[in-house]
Every structure is written in C-alpha cells, then in structure tokens.
Amino acid sequence: MKKHRLEIIIIALATVLLFGSVMDKFLVASDNVYEQIRRFMDVFTYVKKYYVEEIETEEVVTGAIEGMLEKLDPHSVYIEAKQMNKINEQFTGHYHGIGIEFIIKDKVLTVISPIAGSPSEALGIRPGDQLIKIEGKSAYGITEQDVFNKLRGPKDSKVTVTIRRPGVEKPFDITITRDKIPIYSVMTSFMLTDKIGYIYVGRFAKTTVDELEEALLELEGEGMKKLLLDLRGNSGGYLDQAVMIADKFIAGNKKIVYTRGRRPETNDDFYSTDRNTHPHFPLIILIDKGSASASEIVAGAVQDWDRGLIVGETSFGKGLVQNQIGMKDGSALRLTTARYYTPSGRLIQRPYSNGLADYYAEGYDDIDPNTIEDSTATKPVYYTNSHRKVYGGGGITPDVTIKSERLTKSTAKLMANRIFFEFASQYVTKHADLANNFEYFRDNFSITDRIMMDFNQLVKTQNIEVDEAEIDEDIEYIKVMLKSEIARNLWDSKYYYQFIRRGDEQVQEAAKLFPEAAQIAGIVIPQ
Fold this sequence. Notes:
Elements: H1 2-19, H2 23-26, H3 33-50, H4 57-70, E1 77-79, H5 81-92, E2 94-97, E3 100-105, E4 108-114, H6 119-122, E5 130-134, E6 137-138, H7 144-151, E7 158-164, E8 172-177, E9 179-182, E10 186-191, E11 196-201, H8 208-221, E12 226-230, H9 239-247, E13 255-261, E14 268-271, E15 283-287, H10 294-304, E16 309-312, E17 320-326, E18 332-341, H11 356-364, E19 381-383, E20 389-391, E21 400-401, H12 409-416, H13 419-430, H14 438-444, H15 449-461, H16 468-473, H17 475-490, H18 493-502, H19 505-510, H20 514-521
Parallel strand pairs: 11-12, 12-15, 15-16, 16-21
Antiparallel strand pairs: 1-18, 2-9, 3-4, 4-5, 5-6, 5-7, 7-8, 10-11, 13-14, 13-18, 17-18, 19-20
C-alpha cells in the first residue's frame, strides 16, 4: 500500500512540474512521456528503498528537478521556498529592519555603513561599529543568514544590540526600532564635471524608474548637459523597468525590445511612448561583462536607435525570458519561455551549448586588447537606424571598447581582506571633524605620504603578504580606494561611489567621448 501511494505521489509531482494543466496533450506524444515518468519513479523507489543511508525525500526530489532544468538552459531554475523571500526582497525595493550594510570580519559583525534614512543612521551607528551582542547574546561567529534573521523583523518591533566602537573604551547598548528600509537601484548620482552628470544604476527593481527620474531632475537642476549612465555590473531585473528607462531617452513609437518563443503567447513587442520629458542631451552608457538582461535591453535599444554611445566591454549576453510559476509550497519555477531581441534583430543571449561551466567562464574571459577587431570578426553584422554596424552573437558589443582596470594580485588581496575599510574606520575615529565640510574633503583632502605609511603599517600588523612593486604599480588606485572608504565612513555608500568613480579610468575615458555620442544622436553641442 505504501509503495502504491509513493508511486501516485511521484507521478503527480512529475506531472505538475513538467506539464501542468496540459498533461493530456503530451501523454500521446511520440517520446512517450508517461514511460519516462515511470522510469523516474522506478529509480526513485529503488533509491528510497535500498540506498545505504536513509534519504530525505524532499532533498532528492529537489535535486532531480534541478538536474532536469540544467538540461534546458542556464537560466531555467527551481527556487526553494526558503530562498524566495530573500530573492524577492532584492527587487521589491524595501524590507523591514535596522538598516545597515555589513560584513563579517574575523567572525565579528561589522558595520560598513548605516543606510541613509534608516533607524541605524538616526541613532548614530557608524561605519566600523562592531555588533558584538544581539539581545544580550554573543554575535561572535554569526552567519550572514543569522544576521538577517535576528536584525530584520516587523515594522515597529525592537531589537537591542551591543556595540563596540573604535576609540570608545566600553561597549554600549542601543535599542533600535525596526522600520521600512529602502533598497536602492540608483547607487549614486552626481555632477562629474560642471556639465556631465553621472548616474550609477545597480539593479532594475520596482523603484528603479522613479529613482532614475529623481536623479535626472536633480542633475538637470545642477546644470547637466550630458549624461553618463553606468550599467556596469548590473545583472538586470524587471523588464518593464528596462523598457521605461529606455523610453526616457528614445523618441516615441520606437521598438525597444521584442520577445519570441515557441508558443505564440510568449511573443511580445515593446515600444517607446511620447512621455519623454527630458532634454535630448548627449548620452553615453557604460557596460561591462557583468551587465546582463535588463541592462542589455537598455543598451541595445539606445545603440540600435543611434540615441547614444555604448562604451566599455561586451556585456554578459543573458537574453532569455523567464516566466516565474509559483508552487503551493512557496517555491517557484523560473522557466525560460522566450528570447530577447534588440530592435535591429540581434539575439541578446550568448550561446550555451558547451555547458554551464563554460557558459559562465566564457562570459568573463578577457579578450586580447591588441586584437580588438578580431573579437567582432566572427560575429554576425546588423545595422542601426542610421546604418551603423553593430554586432550580434550574444551580448551588446560596445561602440567604443575601454578595458576595465586590471589590478595586481597584491591589491586584490588587500581588497579581499577588507583592509581599506578597516583603515578608513580607524582613520575617521581620529579625524571625525572631516565630516563637517564635504566640499573641502572633495576638493582638498588627499592621501598623503604619512597616511600611506600608516596604511602600510596596518597591512603589516594584519600579516598580509604583499609585493611592494605591485603596490607601487597600483598606488594611484590604492589612494582612490582609501579616500573613497574614508568618505563612506564619514557619510554613506553614496559618497563612496562618488569618489571611486572619480578615480575610475573607464569613467574618465568614457567622459571624453561625448562629441561622438552627440554626433551619433544628431545633437549639436554648443561651443
């Protein structure tokens, strides 16, 4: 009886996962789906009965589902119920908690920065603060998931933390009332020069369009005449947000992106509207190998309609449309149902026939900067609205390639050990008065030889082995990192990005290309 019941459960599970309400159409298919389900059921039954150890049915079935989806494409995935809340949170635009960015360094929960407008900021929590107890219990050795579980909670609920602060003799307690914490898409926006505005969009979430609109209006009020939109490292998000962002720059009734799949209901075409309220300023979009999905939709549409210049490195090439199907247990199936195409007909998706390992490795492999022309030699050619050549084959190939800065192993080791953050935290403890004058810090503060000596001393006390020649090679970048981390400690992460971008070679080189961006878009720049 038990075996018969198990067979029914497995058949029902496979039926729901594979075929939903249209199972009857497939039972008579030529590949004999019913027999394949029976084959799976037989294997599962033998494993359950005879395997050397007791197995967890849920774990085994989840593994079978994941294995099945791996045979399809890189982006069809099964998400367990326990993962869904965290994933949804990344794109809904908020959560409830105390509002800190943090790391766990040497098993100690350490604040990177309080989030602007959060309860933590209001109570004066600072970068570098160590949360050594939560509700009176030691937080030493805490995991990232435990941090989420203990510090997040319902709005207006309270949590007491014990803080050890550099420069303060004794730890002290703070009781924090949890509140709504925004998750920002626009990581920073500022005037790079007196005419060039810079906006860094880190993700495409529900609030991205509203955040971008606010940033645009603010920069326009500060005199922006050119825009550098940074989508590097932006792995995507909501399609509708990508379409609406492209719509802000592209004239009405232009196709922004279209999807095509096996079933007609997955086909769709998305067009710009006449709601564009922003000046027709020269536009540069900066992309890299971490720019994917929604980022590629925006970049591809801007490129195909000759609205702006795409600069940087070829994007990742994630152009598959997933339809999320919720399961009764709270889990979800994200199943690829169609492909994204740019207005000129380029398929955004990069080939993945060599398997998942090669697919992800190839997405980040370097190309030889000395043979940049060869990188397009085998790619299919398409044409923009003004008949400029653009390239298919997966991802968005930039109009102008600017390679990202390559750091030495020693500098990378310092970054991995969070040594810049730790030094900045200690430095600000002794120089907190710097926070009183941002303009002075921006324009006059520099990393002196004395600061570098102190930094090098900290590296030695942490027993981090580095090559001095490599440090000298990266010295300018190291100074930028130090000033950026000090800015984060003085204010918040928005200012960190301001300073790190001002010292970013890709950003600085891209900013020189606005004459080309204006020419492509047919814009005359006043002299």
